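Hello Y.,

Per our agreement to keep a running log of every chain we model this quarter, I'm adding this entry. I've kept the format consistent with earlier entries: sequence first, then predicted structure.
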Amino acid sequence: MQSIPACSVADVAAAARAHGMTLSTMVERTMQAAGRRSVRRLYIGSNFCSQYFLRQPDQVWREAFSLCRREGIPATLVVPVFSQKDLAEACRRIDELVGANRGVVDEITVNDVGMVAYCLDRYGLPLNAGRLFSKEPRDPRYAELFEERHAVGVPALVTELFRQGELQGLELDPTHAALDLSELRGYMPHLEVGVHMPYCYMSTGSICELAGIGRPVREKFRPNAPCKLECARCAIGYGLPYGARLLKFGRAVYFPNHGCTVCEGEDFRMIVSPFDVLVPRRDARVEHGPGAVRFQAKEGQGCERAAAAAEVPAAELGPGEGPAAVPDRGGATARVSLAAAGSAR
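Predicted structure for the entry above:
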């Protein structure tokens, strides 16, 4: 079984500039940290936040699609769930993005049934069931999950859509010690499976804590309120009493599961997120509850592979600050070729 290397800049592409990097550099360092020398696909958009999708600067969209054209790799447009008030604007934005990038965008990841119908009728591109469709148990407080080999099934909500061929791909998170895809492959042999590594999405919602920081108390907790992409400049880390660590980036909460393996299946996409680049590991530890420290990379502390054990720091970043590079183990900034051939692990 071979893992096909992909990189997801969904929800985080706008953070590259705030950290002193181009998007291309962030992707290169992300794949290096995962132990891969290439990337074969880029995921662009948002998994969890309608406001991020609508407010990501045009320059960032252009940079992402230009990177795909330059390196000759396809793009997956990732579409979140939109509230009714944002739906018309969202449909216009999706039309613009797909229409202007027809030669690059070859599939769309959706996260609700209504968007399945809309994108299928309008664009005719292959569709993936996004991370919000998967209801597998996920919680670092339950140690037994990280001792189990979990047999992955098709989400009940969209089983009929897969049978009818309306959905052709499924995206998963590293929820357990190991993900067994044999049952999934037996049911649908040609299903395109992608596993997001090495951070597992745990929870999300329609209220953004970071966007409310500078607002009056009465306006802090408004669902789907417009923002200024505060998530591009800061994140929140949690160190829990029993050793589990959480990362809040934008609306979503994640936990690291670098040790998760995928077994008993055909080729799958290993979709790497750049959190280990944007939130470098550090020696400082948070004992209890949420905390905030400056993003700070330590020399020689880069990872060599996605499954390497790593801790998630508590972190906060001010505007325009952040590491300009993530050094490799020798302290030098390493670059990887985006166009190089992928390798099995």
